[in-house]
Give the backbone structure.
Amino acid sequence: VCEQLAYVAAFTISSYSTTANRTGKPFNPLLGETYECDRTDDLGWRCLSEQVSHHPPMAAQFCEGRGWKSWQEFTMTSKFRGKYIQVVPLGNAHVEFTASGNRFSWRKVTTTVHNIIVGRLWVDNHGDMEIIGEKAAVGYKCHLKYLPYSYFTRDTQRRVKGVVMDPQKQVSRRLFPLFLMKFCCLRSNGC
């Protein structure tokens, strides 16, 4: 279960891997617009998304593949602060593995778009993400901390730190991913 949860953590982090390059206007579907991608024959998965509300924007998505299914509902609030805008996601994402019965749920982290008025746009993802085990994986948890970038540090951008914990709250894995480069997972105990 711990290894599977570490892979789910890598999957959640990968969804932010292109935010550094996607600074243009986002896709904004109309109310009721659907998107379907069926790659069952060659890649073994399919996905269906629908815009269920336009103001505020809200989307629902369901994907399934060989041995797994995933679904999420996404809406957000935003805060405009003059030089930047913050997007605070609401709603949860879920993945379930049919063979093991393991299910994991999480909520996305805050995204801040800097230099809205003047300067080069850049995007930062920051905040805490808890991936919670459910059903057969109840008690397992992963905590990810997306570290905010600051002009005043020498740290690299897009850093994440995390731990995978077993039901006894013992750390079984430490995660050190860098969004665009690599993902390190160090085993702490026998889980």
About this structure: The chain has one helix and 13 strands. The mean pLDDT is 88. The radius of gyration is 18 Å.
